Amino acid sequence: MEPKFNLNRPKVSDDEINKHKDFNNLVKQFKEQSIQKARSDVNFLKNKKATYATVIAGIAVVCTVTYFAVFNKKSTTKPTTNDTTTTLAQNKTQSTKTAERKAFIAPPVKKINVPYHSYKVNADKGGEITHNTKSKIKVPKNAFVNKNGQDIIGEVEIQYREMHDQADIIASGIPMTYDSAGTQYHFESAGMFDIKASHKGEEVFLKRDKPVTVDMVSRQAADSYNQYYLDTVSQKWVVIKHDTPVADKRKPPENNSTQISTIKQLKQLEQKAEHIPLKIDSVRTVYTKKIEKLPVPKQPSKPAKATPGKPKFELDVDYKEFPELSAFKSAVFEVGSENRNYSNELHEITWSSATISEGPQKGKNYILTLALRNRVEKLVVYPVLNDADFATAMSSYEKKFEDYNKLLAKKEAEELKLKQEMEAKQKAFVEEQKQLSAQALREKIILQKQQEEERNEQYPDLNNGQKVIRTFQVNNFGIYNSDCPKLMPSGGKLKVIYALNEKDVPLQPLIVYMVEHGSNKLFTYDNKSFYDLKYDTDKEYTVCVVSKGNLYIYPKDKFKEAVENKTRKLLVTPLPQGTNDVADLRRALEI
Amino acid sequence: MLKNAADMSFNPRYHHTTAQLHDEQLIIEAAKENPQYFGLLYDKYYKQIFGYVYQRMDDKETAFDVTAQVFLKALTNLHRYEFKGVPFASWLFRIAHSEVMQLFRDQKNKRAINADVGDLRNICEEVHEPFFEEYLPHIQTLIKQLPDEDLQMVEMRFFEQRPFKEIAEILNITENNAKVKMYRILERLKKSITNFKL
User: Fold this and answer.
1) Half-sphere exposure of A566 toward its Cβ, with a 13 Å CA cutoff?
2) Using the beta-carbon criterion (under 8 Å), do B143 and A27 form an inter-chain contact?
3) Is the dihedral of CA A383, A389, A394, A397 positive or negative?
């Protein structure tokens, strides 16, 4: 039978193709098959004959199901929630995500964006606008025309916003890569602004000879930046000129009273918290001394029997000086075998003096010093008792040892009590420290919020003494940027894929950003590069993944570990709940 | 018009750079452990596989079902897949080829040939024969009468504009072998075209 020949058959639309994609169903079928296979494997081991029958029946069922599935399936499958863009390759599937990719300026998360501030200016008179960052927008008179080139009369609305750090830039979705002679660079921004104007809802334009001047306050004081204009038609940054910053001599605003009170409270808390370790130390010192001062009972020496045949000395001992020897009354001192200088001759000499002192084993042996004129002999001797005195001495010893044990137990009980007291006090201090730290952290967050609010509302660089002014001549409304193009880091490469932390769900990025800490550098990775992250070993990076209209974070400490361990799967986490603005994003990025 | 040799030597939807092949390999390894990762490959290749299947049949719904079956087979056998330096797509196309052939063995009426007039013109130009609209039925008949293997080659080369490298990878033959086969098919076609013009 010859096949049918269709000439110029209409193509199937991408939408129709996408409608039939159902990855969830595929995984479901796969899992069912796996379970079935596992079961049949078990049965096979149990009963081969039965297994053959089951397998044949199974195949028949699968074939039947497949047959019916193939021929009865209606085109009602819904697009799966797992639909992602085909960013890995060059598949031109026109999914919605691809459309998102094509948007040149695409804020990754709709609700998190740098808002425009709206200002009114009289077109006839011009004017000077001071933005909340203290940047100034100077509008000359009669500067605006409509699309037909006619002069605008009356009030013009100017919408203006600034982007200063990586959080602003990520949120705004403004591309930050720059191609020069075939090499891709990544902009490190010293500040960027976006300006547009309208009159009665209609877009207005600037006259060629009437540029608007923008004195943008910048936090980057270096002289290594150029000014660029974003040409949204050719989708390229166009260099304007070298950007020469001028020092901003205006005085930064002082902290307001609320902030002063918070700072004061924070300082007090921090001071208190700083004192806690000292307090803990002092408790330890005091109690250690107390414990040391506890009287230590002296353990009586256990009487020892004299060894027959060993040389001995009979001595008069002052038992007040050696109380432990009280159990050894009538003791003799046996010469220890360690005395290599001993000879019988020592017994034959009438020594002018014989004294004992503590020996190397305290309470067990003694040093007997024998002297005659210039001759001095030292012997290690052991108090021992003859058989007759031993029983009496033992009974005396046992009584004394009992007393000793009682005293020792008392001492140990007191020591334990003191130790417990010390630990309780230290624990209380540790608890206090925890509370103070938590309180300080709360205050810090409050202060940070207050300062950020202040920064957002009034002054962007509250504590930055190195503030500069960067002056732009705006001939066309749009996005202007003071930038320094940077190459990708070259210290190392990390080949990765991305997954959601909680369930290890694969994540297909649209864009991946790497925020370099300690600078304002932001590296952008697209579908050709986001599996190959580059880094410098002496820098810290937070990875920010844009996927399906959400942002996911891989924090800097984890990235450091990933580099050390050559981790191949980055388990990213979504932005914390309650992330509603750029300030929240900034915190999440640890900027 | 037939795309020139340079255009047909590289298919950006199919071919990859070494880095891209390694990226893909990373995903395949992950998918072997967690089938969810297969979703990335599914999204990437769904349209291409559907296109391949639908190119060879008339019924769109059957084509969608066969495509689903191809991916299910691929996922089931993924643990057996070994990276051999060619795109994952070539493995998928081989599965698709086998599924389609199986279907045609069972139901011959499902087989269809789909081409544009331009594709047929390209064949005539390739064999240095002039093309006129009135030749169309004859050329169609010639193509319909081609053996399965030859028809596959013609479909891939002229109706899907695949480079020889890709055809070779899909059919698991050498690129040179693919070229030789194509040359011989064209020789036979040239003879047949000359015959019906006489």
Assistant:
1) 1
2) no
3) negative
